Amino acid sequence: MAFKDEFVDIGGGSWVGKEEKQELIDSATEFSISAVIYDPTNKYGPRYVVKFELDGEERSLGFGAESVESRDRMLASLATYLDEHEDETVPVVMSQVGRSVVLTLV
After folding, report:
1. Average pLDDT, the chain
2. pLDDT tens figures, 59-100
3. pLDDT score of 53 more than 70
4. What does the alpha-carbon distance between residue 99 and residue 78 come to, in Å, rounded to a whole number?
5. How crowded is the C-beta side of 25, counted as CA atoms within 13 Å?
6. Is the dihedral of CA 64, 66, 68, 73 positive or negative?
7. Distances 61 to 1, 37, 45, 85 between C-alpha atoms, Å
8. CA-closest candidate to residue 53, choices 10, 90, 80, 6
9. DSSP string of 88-106?
10. 20 to 30 A from 37, CA-CA: which of 16, 47, 76, 99?
11. How far apart are alpha carbons 25 and 92 in whole angstroms?
12. CB 55 within 8 A of CB 93
């Protein structure tokens, strides 16, 4: 397999900012994740990038890795699942537990 077949572009789509992320949490907005990418070399530390569609637009949302163990386990498993089931999406909602943001399967 060639590099171009394995390369995953983390960019693209519109990134969800802090205020919009809080709105998604407060309103318990359901969205369906289409891809999860682990980015160990981000300049701010390792992270997971979640790709999803919201209001007809591809969006991206970053979650710091190695800070919320249960979320890390779920995102790692979800990345594997979506890699194996490319035509599927997984619906979730975000919530805040203390200072941590968690994803709950719907």
Report:
1. 90
2. 999 999 988 999 999 999 999 999 999 999 999 999 999 999
3. yes
4. 23
5. 17
6. positive
7. 29, 10, 15, 21
8. 90
9. --EEEEEEEETTEEEEEE-
10. 99
11. 11
12. no
Residues facing residue 92 across a β-bridge: 31, 105
Q: In the prediction, which pLDDT does 85 show? A: 96
Q: pLDDT at residue 24 above 70?
A: yes
Residue written as token pair 């789509």: 13
Instruction: Tell me how far CA of residue 74 lies from CA of 1, 27, 36, 71, 79, in angstroms.
Output: 28, 22, 10, 5, 9
Coil, helix or strand for 22? helix
The structure's pTM equals 0.85
CA 54, distance to chain mean position in Å, is 13
pLDDT of residue 6: 56
Residue 67 confidence (pLDDT): 87
